[in-house]
Amino acid sequence: MSSVPTRALRGALIVTQDEKRTVLRGDVLIADGKIAEVGKSLPQKADVEVDAHRMLVAPGFINLHTHVANTLLRGVADDLDFGGFLEKMFSYDAKRTEADIEVGALLGGAEMLLGGTTTYLDMYYGMDAVGRASERLGIRSFLGWAVLDAQFTTQKGIPVDNAREFMGRWKNHELVTPLPAPQGVYVVSEETWLKTKELADQKRSLVHYHLSETLKEVEDHVGKHGLRPVEWLEKIGFLGPGQIAAHSVWLKNNEIALMAQRKVAAAHCPSSNMKLASGGGGLCPVTELRAQGAVVGIGTDSSTSSNTLSMLRLTHLTGLAHKHARHDPKSLPAQVLLDMATREGARALGQEGFLGTIVPGAAADLVLYDMAHPSLAPVDTASAVANLVYSANEGAVNSVFVGGRPVVDRGRLAGLGDEELEKIALSPPLR
Ligand SMILES: [Zn+2]
Fold first, then answer.
1. Which residue in 25, 103, 268, 293 has its CB near the most CB atoms, within 10 A?
2. pTM (2 d.p.)
3. How far is the CA of 301 from the centre of ligand 1 (A)?
4. Which domain, by its residues, includes 211?
5. CA of 272 to the centre of ligand 1 (A)
6. How much distance in Å is there from the Cα of 43 to the middle of ligand 1?
7. pLDDT tens, 67-122?
8. Rounded to the nearest whole angstrom, what is the distance from the C-alpha of residue 10 to the centroid of ligand 1?
9. 166 and 277: one domain?
10. Residue 63's beta-bridge partner residues?
11. Alpha-carbon separation of residue 10 from 4, 27, 263, 355, 364 (angstroms)
């Protein structure tokens, strides 16, 4: 890592997300890209001293499921059923270039950073372009190369081999972690699932996949194999730790138990599920999964199905959707929601204690929110978590650090100038 000056944020309202969920008025010291210390009136001097009395400091959000390159296609496939939506997506897919993917990832990454997200887990192909965009913006990313059977893909070559090569190219990168990402049971055969698992075991990597998003997907799978997707993935010997299953909407009790037993984490994507009405009357059974000990984080899904990459909105929506559906205002309280969007996302990625928390030794991935912003004020130690989850909007995000580096400084991106951002936003390719 290139040397980054030590930094002290003084007098902030700090939502630490530590083991005890401490919220305090105090200082954060940052050295070597990590949190060196957190506490009241710390005596050490830093290279850069920041008066943060007006700031609420919290860990950056972890967006546990995206297709960031799709940000270019926001607003082209709304109010369609899932089949119509996919048809529209495939028509764009055919003409998309790697340069388009990079531009889409820059735009989506910019939206995430400006909204307080410091880490995201993505699934796509042409991921080198996404890696380059992430690197440039300074956002932390876990990039899953989409794996599916050769007959279903527009990728050149065999997707699982493409994933392997991609992982080789980005091995040991500070901010970009590569992994394979099977698209879902509808386009991935038993052989391909197992080859992916072999690859992930060999490289000790995570695996990300779509799971039981729509009822049709589950019914079709039962029709073909006589088993529901989770039952089938267990039977073929695929399920195991280090896996993050996006959506996980249509799960029966035995599947919930299997996911918990096999330590498979879920990425709950309520905005996408509710907009595509793929959840029908249901949602990912977050409470039941958590009760069995499974890890559940929150993902936005792509800008085509969810339209927003805002984790503030998604965290808010998760709380409201579950309280409403369960007739229980105590369901998923604010602290649990913030945990899901930070600490639990980190656990899902195998980064417990390093991401999603402000404790000594953790990465300095932090967001400074302006406490005078009308969507956050008035705020104090008692209301900090609730106001973040239930009322704050992106306008309150002042500055963002990833690995101790300022990637957003008072609303401006460090890695992408205003002019270039405007050029991408106002004259995007593919549109
Ligand atoms: Zn998805």
1. 268
2. 0.97
3. 5
4. 61-348
5. 9
6. 47
7. 999 999 999 889 988 888 888 888 888 888 999 999 999 999 999 999 999 999 99
8. 40
9. yes
10. 120
11. 18, 4, 39, 21, 15
